[in-house]
Design a protein that fits this description.
Largest sheet: 9 strands, mixed
Helix content: 10-25%
Low-confidence stretches: 1-24
Number of strands: 33
Radius of gyration: 22 Å
Distance between the termini: 54 Å
Structural class: mainly beta
Strand order of the largest sheet: 10-3-2-1-12-11-22-23-13
Shape: globular
Mean pLDDT: 91
Length: 416
């Protein structure tokens, strides 16, 4: 971090923090509305352009990622010097981003990552999302942060300015990048699990996933990323294994019926390397959607304030695995099975495009909006408009109850 004219090597850390917030910063935290889109937190922010004007953009709160990313369109508007290789582009960071009138300096970031996209997709940071910049852990770690999922709000302020509520627990924070690991237990064995509200679904290392699946065949499981498990539309998502874990002690919380995806080993190794400590996976926003989560980075403490009792039916959906494309279309990658049969009957093939749900076009929608259209009460019928080779046809599909609740949870509800 370099917020002062005095060389940082000769300045105590406490003074550096004082410099970061002493000029032009509100003494109170700011709170802005937040859209919860596919379990991801998206807020409005402003970027100052070279001509002095400002540009309103969508920013994705991504505390599980230390890298700053922005779209090519935004980099062009900011006049950043962009260089590209065969895989991605990069540039120096913008000077700052403004949230609710509060200026967030970005000077501590060495390099910005920019996806390599065609000209007609220059505004796409990540397919299926409306955001053009993310707020990574490397930036958030210098602040107090509160994510209010029930209230659809996001708050940020200087350290010590947010009054956190709810049960709290000490966590491990990587001093270099701000990534968080929460001391956890599954079946009385201790593990580290990351806290990543930027992820729409939770993950567990493949060895633990297979171990628990073998020991508990009654735990609901399935193959195929549907609903909130349909993360990005990666080629392997139709083969992802998904399971509900009975109970996880996560810091001060006891989470039940947590849906987790098998974390492929190569991605798990990369994830663990960035974490800097041994980790068993991550808890994503799908398991925390009922909480107000406070990040007290300065004291390595996270707060979980329970906000509501509601079981989000993330898996009461039409059983398709989709890939959002750069041009706004949605490609069908596969059809999940339900009770050992394809959950969508009729002529649906990988490579087809989903054009509309109940007559409402999906092109240009976010993946969260499409999954909202594909969800509902089990047994409800949806009319899907499918396109293949320029020809469109309509078929009926029913909402299915994937990943049913664990037996003990069902019995508990019957007794109420």
């Amino acid at each position: 971090m370099r917020f002062c004219a005095v060389p940082c090597a000769f300045v105590p850390c406490a003074f550096l923090l004082l410099c970061a917030f002493s000029e032009g910063q509100p003494s109170e935290p700011v709170t802005v509305p937040a859209a919860i889109d596919h379990n991801r937190v998206v807020i409005n922010a402003d970027i100052r352009l070279p001509d002095g004007s400002t540009q309103r953009i969508h920013a994705w709160v991504d505390n599980g990622n230390p890298d700053l990313n922005l779209s090519r369109r935004l980099a062009t508007l900011l006049g950043l010097a962009v260089s590209c290789d065969d895989h991605e582009c990069s540039s120096p960071p913008p000077k700052e981003i403004v949230i609710g009138g509060m200026t967030i300096p970005l000077a501590g970031i060495k390099e910005v990552k920019i996806p390599l996209k065609p000209v007609n997709a220059a505004s796409v940071l990540a397919p299926g999302m409306s955001a053009e910049i993310n707020l990574p852990s490397s930036i958030l770690r210098h602040y107090d942060v509160l994510i209010d999922f029930p209230g659809h709000k996001f708050s940020i302020g200087a350290p010590g300015t947010i009054r956190f509520r709810g049960p709290s627990g000490k966590v491990q924070i990587n001093a270099e990048n701000g990534l968080i690991q929460v001391p956890s237990q599954i079946e009385n064995k201790k593990y580290n699990l990351a806290l990543d509200v930027g992820s729409c679904i939770s993950f567990l290392s493949d060895d633990l996933f297979d171990k628990f699946a073998a020991a508990h065949p009654d735990w609901p499981h399935m193959t195929g990323a549907v609903g909130s498990a349909n993360m990005w539309g990666l080629d392997e998502e139709p083969k992802w294994k998904v399971m509900r874990v009975d109970r996880i002690q996560y810091g001060p919380l006891f989470l039940a019926n947590v849906a987790l995806v098998d974390f492929p080993k190569d991605r798990m190794d990369f994830f663990e390397k960035r974490a800097g400590v041994a980790t068993a996976g991550l808890i994503g926003s799908n398991a925390l959607i009922n909480y107000r989560i406070g990040f007290d980075y300065a004291h390595s403490t996270v707060y979980f304030d329970f906000g509501r009792t509601f079981n989000f039916p993330d898996f009461d959906v039409i059983g398709l695995t989709l890939r959002p494309e750069d041009d706004g279309r949605f490609t069908i990658l596969g059809v999940a099975e339900f009770e050992d049969k394809p959950s969508v009957s009729g002529d649906v093939q990988p490579g087809d495009h989903l054009v509309a749900v109940d007559g409402i076009p999906v092109a240009g929608s976010t993946i969260g909006q499409v999954w909202a259209a594909l969800g509902g009460t089990p047994g409800q019928e949806r009319r899907l408009t499918i396109e293949r080779g320029g020809r469109q046809f309509i078929l009926a599909a029913k909402v299915q109850h994937f990943l049913a609740e664990l037996p003990d949870e069902k019995e508990r509800k019957k007794k109420k």
